[in-house]
Amino acid sequence: MGPRARGDYGDEAKSISAVVGLVSTIVGILGIGQLLRGGSSKAATSFLATADDPLNRIAAHFADLMRWIDAPVALFIDDLDRCRSSYAVELLEGMQTLFAASGATFVVASDRRWLRTCYEQEYATFSGAGELGKPLGYLFLDKIFQLSAEVPRVSETDRERYWRGLLRVTMDEPVDFAALRAAARAQLAGANTEGAVRQMVKSVEGDRSPKATALRQEAALRLAAPDVRVRTEHALAALAPLLEPNPRAMKRFVNRYGVERLARTLEDSAVGNELALWTIVLLRWPVLADALDARPEAADGIASAESGATVLLPDAGEGVDRLLRDAEVRTVFAGMGGVTLTSAAVLRCLRRDRAGHHACAASSATTRSA
Fold it and tell me: Which helix (H) or strand (E) covers residue 174, if one does?
């Protein structure tokens, strides 16, 4: 984008004002107040009106700041789902426009479906431009965020300890957690495949003791180790025909599956290979995943669904009835290697029991690595 005449940034001032506030907050913390002055919308508008090429200057200043820090930088944005939809979209688009080459990672803690609705409201003119099972709002989120996942749920034991701490209740006897982690690490050293690690975690399923917690934490790290990760990715290669046929989709699947698997390990959730199939549904047809979140029992009929499949999810709308007739959708639910997406499997992936109860509430987090 080439330089413009001064004062010719009226609409862009709105989009960039919130981002200027974000940058100036970082600058203020680091004590470099001369970089940008003020974080208000008025200050941003003034900056845009008086700079020869304000957008490029802000991006350059931020890139200089990242080089000066010379360390990985993550910026956390919370409570975005308490803002106006226009503000949320402006902030995310400003981040994407200005900081794409900065090397910083942005973590947004917000409800994914709420963000999707924000984009669909702001771009209502293009509402028909979505794909089957992936409306326009989800397409925007796919472009902006490299990874989206739920925050791991806190165990009942940790919640109880936290609550007792708030009430200043006498805690249990001190535990040498470092020693427990070291013992668990040694125990997991010989587990070189995801299946082997999962089997060891399953042996302490339901156990909330510090020893079992240490094993789950070390198991999560073991799953991320290079040797286990390579074997896992090799095993996932068989699922390639079920993915969208492009490299970006494949990379997103591997990343999302890895995060979902780690979260389940930390949560002591008994989920197996069906998690890979569910991850494909989350990425390819998020609207269907949303519908099954409300009616997981419908999953039992999808693999064999015919033209009358709308009875499975009669009120889901948004093209879900078309998805239920789609051959690729039925293929994913039919699964591979004896693993299928039944209602029981979907409930495990959703971290719910048959009664529909969650272990505890959780938020979602989305990340954008610039």
Answer: none
**Radius of gyration in angstroms for the set of CA atoms belonging to the chain, rounded to a whole number:** 23
* pLDDT confidence bin for 24, thresholds 50/70/90: low
Q: Angle of helix 226-236 relative to helix 194-202, nearest 10 degrees?
A: 110
**The tokens of 68 are what?**
């000066």
3-state secondary structure of 270: coil
* Alpha carbons 212 and 204: distance in angstroms, whole number: 6
Tell me the residue type at 159: R
Tell which residue, 312, 305, 309, has the closest CA to residue 291: 312
| Mean per-residue pLDDT over the chain, rounded | 75
Nearest Cα residue to 190 out of 204, 182, 203, 200: 200
pLDDT digits (tens, 9 = 90+) for 303-353: 775 544 445 666 666 577 778 878 888 889 988 878 888 888 888 888 765
What region, left, alpha or beta, does residue 113 occupy, with left being phi > 0 and alpha being psi -120 to 50 degrees?
Answer: alpha
| Partner residues linked to 75 by β-bridges | 106
On the question of pLDDT at 154 being above 80, the answer is no
Tokens of 20: 């200027």
Sign of CA dihedral 104, 108, 109, 113: negative
Burial grade of 271 (CB within 10 A; 0-12, 13-18, 19 or more): buried
Indicate the pTM of the whole model. 0.67
DSSP codes of every residue in 49-86: HH-SSHHHHHHHHHHHHHHHH-S--EEEEE-GGGS-HH
Please tell me the distance from the alpha carbon of residue 271 to that of residue 347, in angstroms, as a whole number: 9
pLDDT digits (tens, 9 = 90+) for 191-224: 888 888 888 888 888 887 888 888 988 998 898 8
| Alpha-carbon gap, residue 336 to 249, rounded angstroms | 19
How many Å apart are CA 215 and CA 315, to the nearest integer? 43
In this predicted structure, the answer to whether residue 115 has a pLDDT above a threshold of 70 is yes
Amino acid occupying residue 120: E
Structure tokens at 73: 């930088």
279 touches 257 (CB < 8 A): yes
Q: Are strands 364-369 and 105-109 parallel, antiparallel or unpaired?
A: antiparallel
Note the pLDDT of residue 75.
87
